[in-house]
Amino acid sequence: MRKHKFLLIITAILMTVFFSSCAELLAGIQELNQELALLEQDIKNIEQANAVAEEKALQLMEQGFPIAIYEHFPSTPNSAGGVNVIIFWKNISPKDFKYVIFTVKPYNAVDDVVYCTISHEADSRLKVTGPVKAKNMDEPSSSVWENVWYNNTIKRIEIEQIDIIYMDNSEESISASEVKEMFIDRHALYDEFGVRSIDEMFGGKY
């Protein structure tokens, strides 16, 4: 009799654990399905935003602008305070580039110009060596320069000037006001189309 009671108790415990595990598993599957649905929507939103960005790039090309700027931003400072610069751009001119030089300036959270704590300079000239093919309507290229400045307060950057040397050795300089006309701001388009940030997509897990 005691043996049977013991077996019944063990069976009840095992069944409780089993059904509890099943409930957790089902909840996990539902959560995963919901996340997959959100990711699918994010992909559609990204595709729509990219289509608008490409249409803007095409309009810039038709207006005779040589470059389309999609995004430009600083990295988070590393442990030594070094800040990288990332620029997404493409050559939409009818000629190949030999060199492109981006002159960039960093700003802090209250929009004041900040300076490198080592060089004590603000402006930095960032060079791309070509050849960069003309009328590039593929995905924009990403150019990355490491440790451009050392300053923990840098929050954003502005492109002050772009200097282009073409393969035929002709040259062109683009002012800050012209750069603003060529700025597509893909990040703003992602916001407009409801694309979630990486933290929102993965809950800060990555």
Describe this protein's structure.
With 206 residues, the chain is α+β, with helices and mostly antiparallel strands. It has helices at 2-62, 176-181, 186-192, 198-202, and strands at residues 67-74, 82-91, 97-107, 124-132, 141-150, 156-166, 171-175. Residues 201-206 have low confidence and may be disordered.
Structural class: alpha+beta
Sheet with most strands: 4 strands, antiparallel
Termini Cα gap: 55 Å
- Overall pLDDT: 85
Helix content: 25-40%
Q: What are the low-pLDDT stretches, counting only 5+ consecutive residues below 50?
A: 201-206
| SSE ordering | HEEEEEEEHHH
Give the spatial strand order of the biggest sheet.
Answer: 4-3-6-7
Shape field: extended
Give the percentage of residues in beta strands. 25-35%
> Total number of β-strand segments?
7
Radius of gyration of CA atoms, rounded to a whole number: 26 Å
Helices, by number, come to 4
